[in-house]
Amino acid sequence: HTNYYKIDPFDPDIAVLTETAAMLRQGQLVAFPTETVYGLGANGLNVQAVKAIFQAKGRPSDNPLILHIDAVDKIYTLAASVPANALALAERYWPGPLTMVVNRRPLVPDAVTGGLDTVAIRLPSSLVARELIRLAGVPVAAPSANTSGRPSPTTAQAVLADLDGKIAAVIDAGPCEIGVESTVVDCTTPVPTLLRPGGITYEMLVEVLGEVEIDPTLSGAQAIPKSPGMKYTHYAPLAPLFLVEAEPITATALLKRELNQALATGKTVGVIVSAELAGSLPPEAIAFVYGPRGDTAAIAANLYTALRSFDNKAVDVIYAEGISDQGLGLAVMNRLRKAAGYRIIRL
Ligand code: TXA
Ligand code: MG
Fold it and tell me: Quick check: 224 pLDDT over 80?
């Protein structure tokens, strides 16, 4: 049985947070909102609790977890050393959707890091998240609160769709503001390396660091990536997804052609598109409009709801309209490419 608590994101009930923080401290699993996606929290220093996260999600144990803290200086309790670049990033973007990989102290369990010498640390900006971590009094290990391989949850309802009955509690503070996971930056390399694009954009990182490496597996041109963290399916809806990548006019033509071909073979077809394109689609296609073209914040915020929206509609196939890689668009396209298993339609 999973306890459900509804709270106000800006004026949270302290009694609820105190109760759920105690559950966390005692080794139970609590799903909670952050500004990015809902996290599946556990006491990050309790090996049994951390192992329970992997169990509940069906997550491969070699995929390491992020430790969440409630104040910048807590990084020193977990990191063996904090490079100047990491400090500069923390000063500018914490609290916020940025995760930094640094060398770990011995007290960080192997279960958290997958046996690596490094640990990923994040200070979320969400008031509910920070209060919960503060009251728990321990670093909170938290992956996204979905079944492994499924789209991340941006609402408590999406958490329950995957994990109801498998976790002690879920705190519902409404939909997440950003809608895609935090940016992950490896700060142990001489030039920091972007491992996962997210709420803090590549451009924002460059502003502080001057120079940022991009992990080769992030390149859109890359076929199936081979690095360990990317060998698993991610963010996938139940039906196969195809991603159309092209300039708007070409994308419209490609998408219509694909939809008409699929419909002609008698398939039930879903499509994820911009407001601009929605009007010119064949009416038989089941459309989810992710927002106006160019409003990447809205598109990011709606992305995972869009991917989950077809789960109970019995579609045979889904097509998605890609967007530009600029700013938050890089994070959106990274998730769409993975959700599509790199089935990409180009000219
Ligand atoms: O926005 C977020 O980051 C959300 C919320 C809940 O905070 N959490 C999240 O966690 O997305 P998860 O587990 O779904 O993604 C963590 C990512 C994975 O890609 C993992 O491989 C990477 O961070 N990671 C964790 N520790 C690492 C390490 N020591 N070195 C390299 N990558 C690491
Ligand atoms: Mg995840």
Answer: no
> Rg of the Cα trace of the chain?
20
- pLDDT tens, position by position, 185-215: 999 999 999 999 999 999 999 999 999 999 9
> d(Cα 137, Cα 182) in Å, to the nearest integer?
22
The question of ipTM being above 0.90 is answered as: yes
pTM: 0.96
Cα of 248 vs centre of ligand 1, distance in Å, is 32
Dist. CA 65 → ligand 2 center (Å): 9
On the question of pLDDT at 142 being above 80, the answer is: yes
Instruction: Please list, in sequence order, all residues whose beta carbon lies within 8 angstroms of the beta carbon of residue 335, skipping any fewer than 6 positions away.
Output: 180, 234, 235, 303, 304
For 61-72, the DSSP string reads TTSPPEEE-SSG
E strands along 297-345, which residues? 317-321, 344-345
| Nearest ligand for residue 130 CA | 1
pLDDT at position 210 is 97
pLDDT for position 231: 53
- Residues with C-beta less than 6 Å from any ligand 1 atom: 34, 36-37, 39, 63-66, 97, 99, 101, 113, 116, 118-120, 122, 142-144, 181-182, 184, 195-196, 229
Instruction: Answer for the pair 100, 89: CB distance below 8 angstroms, yes or no.
Output: yes
pLDDT at 65: 98
From the CA of 119, how far away is ligand 1's center (Å)?
10
What is the side-by-side strand order in the sheet with 317-321? 286-291, 269-274, 317-321, 241-244, 344-345
How many CB atoms neighbour CB 179 within 10 A? 26
- Cα–Cα nearest to 175, from 1, 345, 4, 6: 6
- Are 101 and 173 in contact by the 8 Å Cβ rule? The answer is no
Give residue-wise pLDDT tens across range 304-315: 999 999 988 989
